[in-house]
């Protein structure tokens, strides 16, 4: 596999090569890991991961705390706040019972920034409800990464991409952001600072595309729960 042409940027061909290599690397090694599947579609790299409940809840609210909330607290809530509180309490209850989360990640190439972009969505509960941004920060993002993501640090910030199929009156379709391939609601990490972050992380100019993608995953994926299983790296990069 040839070295990168213009690190820290990555070309379309290099991106495809890297995604294909990671898919092949994980083909027979996903068992006994928390990666359920890895698939390169030719346009995006899809990774599905299960998260153990003990890996979540690093945020400001401990899991299950909602169960011990005083009754007069609920009486002071507005209808809207009460509904949101019920959702959070149900979510905490599911976690407390040992339920797992399944997170779907999508990696695409940004034509503007010439770097990969990480998209993700997470659902929970028997009704398969999508997590809100607050829940993402509370149950998916480690505390040490929360400030950087909220302040749009080196990893970029978490944003919500919404489908352009159902635009709202206040947000016309041509002004809305959306997943470039699936056109489904999804969170993503903005790639505006990715090149600078990669340059600071390593000065290595002779990375292969797959090495680049693994380096990028360690930098961008880790803050939102996408860790590369050590089993996939056991034979070297």
Automatic annotation (TrEMBL):
Pfam family, one: Autophagy_act_C
Keywords attached to this entry: Autophagy, Protein transport, Transferase, Transport, Ubl conjugation pathway
GO CC, one annotated term: cytosol
Keyword rRNA-binding in record: no
Family per similarity comment: Belongs to the ATG10 family.
PANTHER family given in the database record: UBIQUITIN-LIKE-CONJUGATING ENZYME ATG10 (PTHR14957)
Keyword Acetylation: no
Coiled-coil boundaries: none
Any single biological process term in GO: protein transport
Annotated GO MF terms: Atg12 conjugating enzyme activity
Protein name: Ubiquitin-like-conjugating enzyme ATG10
Domain of life: Eukaryota
InterPro entries in UniProt: Atg3/Atg10
């Amino acid at each position: 596999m040839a070295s990168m042409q213009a690190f820290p940027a990555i070309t379309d061909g290099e991106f495809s090569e890297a995604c294909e290599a990671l898919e092949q690397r994980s083909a027979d090694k996903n068992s006994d890991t928390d990666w359920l599947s890895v698939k390169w579609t030719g346009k995006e790299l899809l990774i599905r991961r299960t998260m153990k409940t003990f890996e979540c809840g690093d945020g400001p609210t401990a899991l299950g705390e909602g169960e011990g909330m005083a009754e007069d607290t609920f009486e002071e809530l507005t209808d809207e706040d009460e509904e949101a509180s019920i959702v959070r309490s149900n979510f905490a209850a599911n976690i407390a019972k040992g339920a797992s989360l399944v997170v779907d990640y999508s990696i695409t190439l940004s034509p503007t920034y010439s770097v990969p972009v990480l998209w993700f969505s997470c659902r929970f509960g028997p009704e398969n409800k999508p997590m809100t941004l607050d829940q993402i920060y509370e149950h998916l993002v480690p505390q040490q990464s929360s400030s950087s993501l909220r302040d749009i640090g080196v990893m970029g910030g978490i944003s919500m991409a919404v489908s352009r199929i159902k635009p709202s009156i206040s947000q016309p379709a041509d002004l809305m952001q959306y997943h470039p391939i699936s056109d489904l609601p999804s969170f993503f990490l903005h790639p505006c600072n990715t090149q600078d972050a990669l340059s600071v992380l390593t000065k290595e100019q002779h990375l292969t595309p797959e090495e680049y993608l693994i380096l990028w995953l360690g930098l961008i994926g880790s803050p939102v729960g996408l860790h590369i299983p050590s089993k996939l790296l056991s034979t070297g990069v």
